[in-house]
Amino acid sequence: MTQPRVVERFRKRTIWFHWIHTVAFLVLLVTGAILFFPGIGGAAAGGITRSIHRVAVVFFVGAPVIYSVLNPRMALHFIKETLTWGIDDLEYMEAAPLYYFGGPEENMPPQGHVNSGQKMWQFIVLATGVLFVISGLIMWFLKDTVPAGLFQWSVIVHDVAFLLAFLMLLVHIYTGTIHPRMTESLRSMWDGKISVKYARNHYGKWYEEISRGEGEEKE
Amino acid sequence: MLLQPPALALAKDSHNQEDVAMLVDVTKCVSCWWCYAACKNYNKLPETIKPDPEQPPPLSPKVWTTLKPVKINDEWHSRKQACNHCTNAACVEVCPTGALSYNDLGFVQYDKDKCSGCGYCAEFCPFGVPQMESNRVSGVAVMDKCTFCIDRVTGGEQPACAAACPTGAIKFGKRAELVAEGRERVAALQNSNANAVFYGDKELGGLHVMYVLDESPEVYGLPVAPEEPPAALVRDVLRWVGVGAAAAIIIGFGLNYIIFREAKIVHELPGREFIRKREEENKK
Question: What is the model's pTM?
Answer without folding.
Answer: 0.88
